[in-house]
Design goal:
CATH superfamily of the largest domain: NAD(P)-binding Rossmann-like Domain
Structural class: alpha/beta
Bound molecules: uridine-5'-diphosphate
Shape: globular
Distance between the termini: 24 Å
Strand content: 15-25%
Number of domains: 3
Oligomer: single chain
CATH class of the largest domain: Alpha Beta
CATH architecture of the largest domain: 3-Layer(aba) Sandwich
Order of helices and strands: EHEEEEHEEEHHHHHEHEHEHEEEEEHEH
Length: about 375
């Protein structure tokens, strides 16, 4: 007997979107989640100092996709939040992305006009027609001095690789501005969910057609699931096939060691996120969560992020070698019917949150249109 129509492995963005969409068209959905909570890496909670804190690093929602924005607004109220990041460089504090203020502070300039910044960039940048890796991408935009001060070591700490060993796309995530705009993102919609992401996921998964099984490893229960129509797998793609002993090659992931300190003081730093692009400390950044939404508390909590090899897989590592290995897994994945690999870990891609929403929504539309056609033709 069929208990569920749809089985989804993982309760992060991709899993929750597919569950919500399928439940809305009357399908019975089972989500199997290894962790003891929903919301994937977006999971947040109120900590002992009364501060809404993310367990797996700050999640800043930003998108130009009106459809995704409309969709996420169905499950939470949002407040506008323009994310800003500062970095400690040479004992100075500068905004990142690089903009006029960054150059003024680091090089004792007094630029006030875009033309002056353009001139400075033109004198410093090393042009590459088509940057082949992260180093060329940064040199092409800002040149050697800023590359050295702000990107080289940070990237080594973050990825255990220098920018030259990574795809240009990784470093291209951060723009360079010729004006004073110091916002981290320039998307049309930038906001945070009022009650946090976990609450948003609770709402997404509140349809009685959805059952969530926490603390459960899919690979330990897959034989007991009985029949169902479709499986959506949002975990690491290599684990899916390693488990079946089909392929063994290891895909690289970076993990983060989050070290939290609860402090008996009102504030620790002047901004939510402070980056440390130099070699003087091992962590990449310190996040002080109370800044998000200007939360009030007599105390504060900070989280230092150390990127490490082992632990929960957070970041796929985008370079040619990993892409080649991924292609082999993808070929295996494509041979399966009614099994879909969705999201950052299953597609081995460095998605932003809005892209994860978009991909899952598109997959649903694509499959259901196809099914509709199939039903109509039979
Ligand atoms: N990066 C850097 N210096 C910084 C911030 C970022 O070199 O101060 C590089 C680094 O390689 C990083 C990439 O830019 O992985 C993308 O940064 P982003 O902030 O998007 O990373 P995420 O927030 O996803 O960890």
């Amino acid at each position: 007997m069929k208990n569920f129509d749809i089985v989804i492995v993982g309760a992060g963005i991709s899993g929750a979107v597919l569950a919500e969409r399928y439940a809305a068209i009357g399908k019975k959905v089972l989500i199997i989640e290894k962790r003891d909570h929903i919301a994937g890496n977006c999971y947040d909670f109120v900590d002992e100092n009364g501060i809404l804190t993310s367990q797996y690093g700050a999640h800043l929602f930003h998108t130009n996709d009106g459809g995704v924005w409309e969709y996420v607004n169905r499950f939470s109220e949002w407040y506008p939040w323009q994310h800003r990041v500062i970095a400690r460089v040479d004992g100075k504090t500068v905004p990142i992305p690089v903009n006029i203020t960054t150059v003024n502070i680091l090089f004792n300039k007094n630029f006030t006009k875009e033309a002056e910044m353009q001139q400075w960039l033109a004198e410093n940048r090393i042009p590459f027609d088509e940057p082949r890796n992260g180093e060329e991408a940064v040199l092409n935009k800002v040149g050697e001095v800023l590359y050295e001060k702000m990107f080289r070591h940070y990237t080594k700490k973050q990825w255990d690789k220098y920018p030259a060993e990574l795809h240009a796309s990784v470093l291209d995530r951060i723009p360079v501005r010729e004006n004073f705009d110091d916002r981290y993102f320039s998307d049309r919609y930038q906001a945070l969910p009022k009650a946090g992401y976990t609450k948003l996921f609770e709402k997404m998964l509140s349809n009685p057609n959805i059952m969530v099984l926490l603390n459960t490893d899919y690979f330990e229960v897959e034989d007991q699931l009985g029949d169902y129509d479709k499986l959506f797998y949002t975990g690491p793609i290599d684990r899916f096939f390693n488990f079946r002993k089909k392929l063994k090659e290891k895909l690289e992931y970076r993990s983060i060691n989050f070290v939290t300190e609860h402090l008996d003081q009102e504030y620790f730093q002047e901004n939510s996120v402070v980056n440390y692009p130099g070699e003087e400390v091992e962590y990449t950044r310190i996040v002080e969560y109370k800044h998000f939404g200007n939360q009030q508390s007599a105390k504060t909590s900070i989280v230092k992020e150390y990127t490490v090899d082992h632990g929960e897989p957070y970041y796929p590592v985008p370079n040619d070698k990993n892409q080649e290995i991924y292609a082999k897994y993808k070929a295996e994945a494509d041979k399966l019917t009614d099994v879909y690999f969705v999201g950052r870990l299953a597609n081995y891609k460095y998605f932003n949150m809005d892209q994860a929403f978009r991909n899952a929504l598109d997959l649903f539309l694509q499959l259901e249109r196809r099914d509709t056609v199939r039903v109509a033709n039979s």
